[in-house]
Fold each of these.
Amino acid sequence: MTGKKLDFDAIVIGAGISGLYELHLLRDRYGLNVKVFEAGTGVGGTWYWNRYPGCRFDSESWSYGYSFNQEILAEWNWTEHFAPQPETERYLNFVADKLDLRKNIQFSARVKSAHYDDNDESWTVTLENGESYRSRYFVTCVGPLSAPTYPKFDGIESFEGESCHTGLWPKHKVSFEGKRVAVIGTGATGVQTIQEVAKTAKHLTVFQRRPNWCTPLHNGPISSEEMEEIRGRYPEIFRLCKETASCFVHNPDPRKTLETPEAERNAFLQNRYETPGFGIWMGNFKDMLTDRDANKVISDFVAERIRERVKDPATAEKLIPTDHGFGTRRVPQETFYYEVYNQPNVELISMLETPIERITPKGLETSDRSFEFDIIIYATGFDAITGSFDRIDIQGADGIKLKDKWKGGPTTYLGMMVKDFPNMFMVIGPHTALGNIPRSIEHIAEWVAGAIHHMHQNGITFADPTQSGVDEWTDYVAEVGEGLLSNEIDSWMTGINLNVEGKQTRILARYSGSAVEYRRRCDKIAEDGYTDVTFTSRGGVMANANPNH
Ligand code: NAP
């Protein structure tokens, strides 16, 4: 023991949806002295950084907000069924003010390293500005999609126009009026961006590598009367989210695709296509994401809708995926996305046919053409799930680096703890249920806060999961992923990012079983006194429990 006083009981990284709630729980429910370090200048995490044009929820707004606080539910009004980014950022600022969270958050504070000290069982967290702080507990709330990645194109720095990554979008308004714009990437983000940019750009060129299956969002405004009606249904909405496998309000249909008579099947698929949000993905025939023949039926159905909506048959074919079935990668939700390609100011370039070879000062060159642009938008995604951890030098017991430990894929206990990283907890780390993410966040943040409270209350200074607990959990994560077609496909959900060294092979990145079962297992473990976690109390000096530190 060094006996040096700790600066805080707990340090939390990130003031997004996870970090805000974790701070509230640890400080207000359990009376701990907590500090949150946040790289941005404001709260919001994903909803702070992703301010690109067209950014909005793909989850129903009223199923996405926090459910734990009746005053927040009573006072906040959503104005659209799938709220745009500015509204969500306002919402998270409202929550931060309501719960008086800002006083414990240090903004513009990017964490460079976090090292565990074996001697006094504490963490030392160092910021990029050189400041260092020590705490007993260390909680990562860094988000699964928060480490933006750029393609490794030659000449990327040479472009003389404006270039922006969607995940690092500037705060100033970027106007596309009269501009020649390129969008590279057609994932969920690219699709939202393209629809918006196409409205005003003089010319938009979309560079698509692998096409995705996109389906209509069917967004709409929420009147004040409807908001009152929704408010009355909050208990029912959140109960439903607790009962579904992915925490959305959509439940799979109990019928099997090919056992359903054709006319009935087609009518149902059309109904799903017309249902707002992820009804078509989460609320489709129950075998759609596990049975290849069933999956082909829905893929063919969506392909036909694309052919109907895109006038030029060659362009339509370029937009139809041939390397993966519907729903096996994240389904981008769209609003007249396919119709964009009928506009005279929009051109689609398939990078599978003519790849980008270099970025030039004036634009870019593909294998067969040169293009000139005023703005290049990179909608090229994230080093997902483990990327935000990799960007911080996290070292556990005996100086072991988390990045090295996870080289062959992450190993975790419940997706919340890592062996040899004592007293470190992850809210939405690898191997946790994602889905309608705030629903998972609330559960995990509560579990983590409960474990920390258990330690604090009982004078426990060291918590580390057992190797057998980690092995069992990691095996279980593999087991529940078996048979899911999505786990056979390259995407961020299987840990692939071709722009990042060492991320070319699929890993077990996320828990793909039911969130209901995930919560049941985690809660049982907590009720049983945190089975498979080694706790010890070696004494030591704890920080003052002054919640307003
Ligand atoms: P993404 O799904 O990983 O898509 C990245 C896109 O960039 C893909 O089309 C990819 O092509 C392309 N790309 C990447 N590197 C490239 C390169 N070197 N050359 C050419 N193309 C390249 O990322 P995202 O669209 O940012 O979405 C990530 C996740 O964020 C989503 O799946 C979703 O979970 C979340 N999200 C949520 C919302 C919401 O809820 N409202 C909105 C947007 C995003 P390939 O497919 O060929 O690799």
Amino acid sequence: MTYPDPTSRSAQLFARGRKVMPGGNSRTGVTLNPYPIYAVHGNGCRVTDADGCIRIDCINNWSSLIHGHGNQAVLAAIAEQSQHLLAVGMPTEVEIDLASLLCERLPGVEQIRFSNSGTEGVMMALRAARAYTGRDMIAKVEGAYHGSADSMEISVAPSPTQWGPAHTPSSVPATAGIPAKVQQDTLVLPFNDVEATSRLIEQHAGELAAVVIDPIVSRMGFVEATDAYLQRVRELTDALKIILVFDEVFSFRVGYHGVQGVTSVTPDLTALGKVIGGGLPVGATGGKAEIMEVFDQTKKPLRVEHGGTYNANPLTMAAGLACMKQMTPAAYDRLDRLGDRLRDGLRHHLEDHDLKGQVMGRGSLAGLVFSDKPFTDFRSLPLGPHEVRTVLSLHRFLLNHGVQIIPFGLMILSTAMTEDDIDEILEQVGAGMAEIRSSRRSDEH
Ligand code: PMP
């Protein structure tokens, strides 16, 4: 079956879904035009859709499935745990086990608490920073996504007419429903611009509770923070007693010690989610014990109330523990090699098909950008209509040739993949690029 097909089961499900849910489902990110493809089954690195088409999954639930689908150890842990407790109004030991594993691995995490989404992981980091510093303002990078908390739904993908000056970017709500007061309390930083960022942080020193940074920005084709940028932000936040928060919800999967294991600085707080839940809903906030103490409900008066009916539910904790235990240094090395194989192959294909482009990403993350113009921040992202059209054409070609990627050119790998799977992805990307090239030639004539 070729996508799109109005007679497909997915098209029918979408029509049915739209009657009871605005937009047909509950998640902006699964949107596809003219209809999203409905999934029914996953096995290893492949997903079967409602029409029986099987594709290699390079979305991996937007980074959360580091072992792909149906990982036996994770399923066994879920089955075993489900015999005892799903969720319960008491703490359980498995929560301590997962907390211990994460505290051991992450240099900036001495203590941690769990929640149910990356959004909550970030939100509780902001709350802790505000409680600890007694200040309200939060700084974030222009073009970065940090989940759905009001303070973070600012300047995620503003249009050029909304940008404001490069050295003092405007604070632009990314969605309707953000209170003006919250908008004013989010300071927007130009990524990788050391001077302008320093000036902004210094200007707002007395008001800033936290600076939030994802050092590998998925919404910007995996562009990375430079060492100089991170070091300067670390120096300033230390000197001005502002909390530096790393949002590793998406990017934690790049290494055994997370992103902070591959950068030259250690944050005060870290927000986590996705992979640490082994495929079940999860979020976490971790960091220096001195700051995390604000959550300590044994202290009177309690500084930050952190409730949540499903926080650290034993099913998620068991799945997360089984997932993370398999992520040994050797497992990360193997994923790195698969990632290198994919990135090298993508670069060769761009050359062979004489297409302008660059390949971003590290570890199990790869990003394909159809422009050779270097970029370092949101405003220099080469995402004009031509580049967007090209990446969407490739995405559509791949959908019809057994591979699903994130529509704007991101590919997320899993340990369920082998070198043969990577080669299959590459073969289809090569065929897709050949088609793009030949349709361009016929346009030119
Ligand atoms: N931070 C980053 C960097 C993310 O990519 C995401 C989700 N894609 C979030 C936070 C929010 O996580 P969740 O969707 O689990 O709320």
Amino acid sequence: MNAKLIIAALVALGGTQLAMGWGQKGHDTIAAIAERHLTPATKAALDSLLDGKSIVYWANWMDNASHTPKYDYSKTWHYKNIDADQSYVSAPKHSKGDVVSALNREVAILRSPRESEAEKILAVKMIVHFMGDLHQPMHLGHASDLGGNTVKVKFFKNEANLHSVWDSSLPEAAHKWSYTEWSDQLDRLPEAEERAVMGGDFDSWAEETYGICRQVYEKTPKGTVVSYNYIADWTPVVEQQFLKGGLRLADVLNQIFDPEYVPVSSIKK
Ligand code: ADE
Ligand code: ZN
Ligand code: ZN
């Protein structure tokens, strides 16, 4: 292959690479917030499964894994599509699974006495990651535009798409913080409000995120130039979604691993 052909092939590949979740910052922050709300029993169970590594260590891993042949089956598990003319309930389900079915599946694996330790380790990594994706509004986007991946916008002067703006450009422009700084700044809710956030299950959380997604579509038609005003308007929503994702991830893990934990409402089907 000559140099021109190689470059053309690389450009083509780059163009088809679809974003799979919040950027690393979102996933890391959500896991870091969750980590601060785990009970001692849950922490001990996770320490044993993850060999002492933190859930933050694994938070973004699925976005790489799903691009490898071994985990190719999980490509569609990062999102759930609801088209404009559908409702959350009436939207057709993807035959290969979606973020909600994946979360229910992996929780069942962790609750089952018959599953191997290797399956359980993978299930923890998946739940930590997919709870993040469940709170990224464009991961509940339309099938017709691949969750905003084909909605062309500008991020300041650069060509971008609505999905990638929400995965990473917008969060990174909101605050120039590390994930620890993000968690320190966001994780300050009074306990009664934290409990209110934790109530619900995967379906109710997905439907809530879908409500935000609809507002995003309304305010970001194709051709929008995303600039300072957009960042100021939507930063509180990014912050809220990171915090909700983190608190709810802690709630899910505590429900699975701590028999003494009393949830606001059960995620069990
Ligand atoms: N990432 C890749 N494809 C997607 C889709 N259809 N919806 C949301 N996120 C995606
Ligand atoms: Zn993802
Ligand atoms: Zn994404």
Amino acid sequence: MNDYQSPVPADLPERIQHYIDGEHVDSAEGGSFEVLNPVTNEAYLRAAAGTKADVDRAVAAATHAFETGPWRETLPRERSRVLHRIADLVESRGERLAELESFDSGLPITQALGQARRAAENFRFFADLIVAQADDVYKVPGRQINYVSRKPIGVAGLITPWNTPFMLESWKLAPALAAGNSVVLKPAEFTPLSASLWSGIFEDAGLPRGVFNLVNGLGEQAGDALVKHPDVPLISFTGESSTGQTIFANAAPALKGLSMELGGKSPAVVFADADLEAAINATIFGVFSLNGERCTAGSRILVERSIYAEFIERYAAQAARVKVGLPHEPGTEVGALVHPEHFEKVMHYIEIGKQEARLLAGGGRPEGFPTGNFVAPTVFADVAPEARIFQEEIFGPVVAITPFDSEAEALELANNTKYGLAAYIWTNDLKRSHNFAQSVQAGMVWLNSNNVRDLRTPFGGVKASGLGHEGGYRSLDFYTDQQAVHINLGEVHNPVFGNAD
Ligand code: NAD
């Protein structure tokens, strides 16, 4: 027990159940698991631990709603109204949502509030997109018209991680529902609290019963059962690359549609001609915001040698001033990592880093926080490309900085990991920025910018960072079948077989 505590949110439930066919229910087999407060690591509630039996019930409810219910046939304008009401409710409950999210995940409250606003925005975006949706028509004059008939697919299985959980759930829920599917959501077991708000939001917004179902539980049980369920043709997964591999293999026998948003070790490349102040501010935010638990974190910074000494000195000094604090305090910039297991993993990498590179800031617990999952923003310099802290995703407030001498070397270093999610490039040379952007192996590139994403753009990674893209109409492509309908306008013009004398 420590002497600092986050205030416990009012009216916290003592247990969290599943939500199946419009009812809150316990696990069929009665199991539950503990959920920990990341500041104290004490269990503060229990959540139902779903197994195959619960997933079977949820999929049956979702299938029934899909086959018989009104949602898939509801006109886009009406579905759009429901989605806008969901966005309104998320916005109006944003403070409560952020309070629960911050308490459950250890995210700083100001950042949790930002994520709640983004979750509402995701619903608004897809509400607008489905009424503006146009599909292709192709004409062959006098002969044929071909058109695309877009249809919802059925029950989508949505499996999500614990970093910014509510926002990442909204990212999948909004397009899946907008397209007219039913869903079964399996949220991350470290952070089930904010997901428990969805049922009330959907009920109040008028989403028909059975369209949204939620099964809590461990990945290897509830998640696994969802992936293997024969009546779930689509799985959208966000999480670690190694989990993605397991899911890929488990979904293969049924040839399911898969969307995979996986891990990253994204480079931020700073050339000598960059606006140094802006580059330092952005690369500090890029790896220390959201506690460093961010898939697109710029966790490897590559710096041109002529500015390297100045960069690392200024960077380390600023990193040391980043404010670690209790998640609920408005001034906190880095809160508590989500769970003691994850904390141990990050601390282990910090010890590895001390053997592999030069420690410039942080390197363990911050002063004043002897317990709980607090990690000081940690900066390693002179990190060799073969170092584990250069190659492996740490997913915490830890950055590896490496010098380079030429653009070619910078590119080689940037591409020298198994991941390929994001890249950030800092230079004022127009040609170089575009040439580098086109050569770097990353699904998303930001030039002279932090991670600011227009919701219309594709989101996704290459190499071990993912499969497929979500974002904008690409999400609707994933959650719909695009049936091609061909209409003959003229003569039937196939050769006639079997007509010989
Ligand atoms: P994780 O892979 O451990 O778990 C993610 C989800 O998968 C959880 O709900 C978990 O219960 C479930 N799961 C685990 N094993 C499963 C199995 N065998 N079958 C089915 N489901 C299973 O990931 P995490 O630790 O929760 O999240 C952190 C990871 O997510 C990091 O690697 C991060 O980079 C990645 N991430 C990627 C993106 C992106 O968009 N690319 C976004 C956020 C996080």
